[in-house]
UniProtKB/TrEMBL annotation:
<feature type="active site" description="GMP-histidine intermediate">
    <location>
        <position position="367"/>
    </location>
</feature>
<dbReference type="GO" id="GO:0006396">
    <property type="term" value="P:RNA processing"/>
</dbReference>
<keyword id="KW-0342">GTP-binding</keyword>
<dbReference type="GO" id="GO:0005525">
    <property type="term" value="F:GTP binding"/>
</dbReference>
<dbReference type="GO" id="GO:0006281">
    <property type="term" value="P:DNA repair"/>
</dbReference>
<feature type="binding site">
    <location>
        <begin position="343"/>
        <end position="346"/>
    </location>
    <ligand>
        <name>GMP</name>
    </ligand>
</feature>
<keyword id="KW-0547">Nucleotide-binding</keyword>
<feature type="binding site">
    <location>
        <position position="206"/>
    </location>
    <ligand>
        <name>Mn(2+) 1</name>
    </ligand>
</feature>
<keyword id="KW-0692">RNA repair</keyword>
<keyword id="KW-0436">Ligase</keyword>
<dbReference type="InterPro" id="IPR052915">
    <property type="entry name" value="RtcB-like"/>
</dbReference>
<feature type="binding site">
    <location>
        <position position="224"/>
    </location>
    <ligand>
        <name>Mn(2+) 2</name>
    </ligand>
</feature>
<feature type="binding site">
    <location>
        <begin position="367"/>
        <end position="370"/>
    </location>
    <ligand>
        <name>GMP</name>
    </ligand>
</feature>
<dbReference type="GO" id="GO:0030145">
    <property type="term" value="F:manganese ion binding"/>
</dbReference>
<dbReference type="Pfam" id="PF01139">
    <property type="entry name" value="RtcB"/>
</dbReference>
<dbReference type="GO" id="GO:0170057">
    <property type="term" value="F:RNA ligase (GTP) activity"/>
</dbReference>
<protein>
    <recommendedName>
        <fullName>3'-phosphate/5'-hydroxy nucleic acid ligase</fullName>
        <ecNumber>6.5.1.8</ecNumber>
    </recommendedName>
</protein>
Amino acid sequence: MTEIVSGQDLIDAGMQQGKWFARALVAANGVLEQGGSHEDAIEAARGFAPPPALPLHAGGALPLHLNIQAENQHEAANVEAVTRSMTELMRTPVVRAGAIMPDACPAGSPGTIPVGGVAVSEGIHPGMHSADICCSMAISVFPGVAPAALLDAVHAVTHFGPGGRQRGQQFRPSKEVFARFEANPLLRDLTSAAIEHFGTQGDGNHFAYVGTLKSSGETALVTHHGSRAPGARLYNKGMKIAEGVRRTLSPETLPQNAWIPADTREGDEYWEALQVIREWTKGNHMLIHDLAAEKLSAKVSDRFWNEHNFVFRRSDGLFYHGKGATPAFDDWADDATDLTLIPLNMAEPVLIVRGKNAENGLGFSPHGAGRNFSRTQHRRMQAGRSDAEIFAEETKGIDARFFSGVTDISELPSAYKNATSMRRQIEHFGLAEIVDEVLPYGCIMAGDWEANAPWRKKKERREAEARRQ
């Protein structure tokens, strides 16, 4: 009787049963057919076994830099929450260091990287840049243009809210960017979204802000948004790839901290896809700025941009994930200038800063003012006052607009951390040097577009009918 190696033989040899057994048995029995011994066959099968699971780091084993101070009870609770979450995240086997910025706030279940978190790793973690890949800032200076005229022009050409632009109002990305979409396996089915969402800004805390430079008085446009649907869909694909790796290499790692190993086919494709999404997002900013300039027949004298939700690979070969953190190290990108942008809230200046590559910040600075409360908590705290009253009080002296026509009080200044405190902590921790400011004139945000959404109106009608019965 011809000897064969069975699955039970592999189990008896101490191997953990799995899908890999099928390939292992083919190889093992191939050895026997060629006259090899049973022992040789078992060793051939063992070569197909997945590597042993990577253990989690012990809690507190890695350096975590805390660049944040609590100035009241609410901030103390916030600092405790983000520190606890980052400490858990840093148990991930391939993570090497972490930092928390002054604007940090929780962004999910414990162990999830907070907004204002920085994580250094051997791998690429889609969950650490989130669905809003390459959320970023851009500024253009419009000499000789009145702020009111610029704000009106931007309002006329931009697009906030869900979805993309309607047919007949769409713009196509550059040929170079579009060709890179088509060439990348993770992006080639996203070309329609790349067109539909080009020239859009989304919702939430994204904005178009007009003000004047403190240094010169010239009018400037500052925009804030990410990669819209193309980035969100790439993120979903990345998370699926990373989850497969996590289940094999480190089942104990939290799903949100799964990673794609570097220098693998999947890692290379995902890294390239991130760079394409970055170029698309930069083009998205510049399109809105150029449309405003065209509408005004105006010229732009200066512009620059920076992402604050992205992954950077530095000379040490490690991946630096900034989740709501602004790069502050030299040459962070081929198109980097020495200046970056940090917004605070719609009624405060946008800070123009020069990064200091602080070791305690792992080469990053804050990306904004952050929150001490969730949107829901903030709304509860405003109970007893109408949205109109809150809006009038908090936007006094600026031209604040909501694209949907409905105020979102969770985006008004009181929803964010104290701007003065943010500036003080940037200086205290040596994270950046403030070199200029864009003083506020007005701001456009999406607003509460869901208030009049068809599904909500339908639900309200059903509930009204139920009450009448």
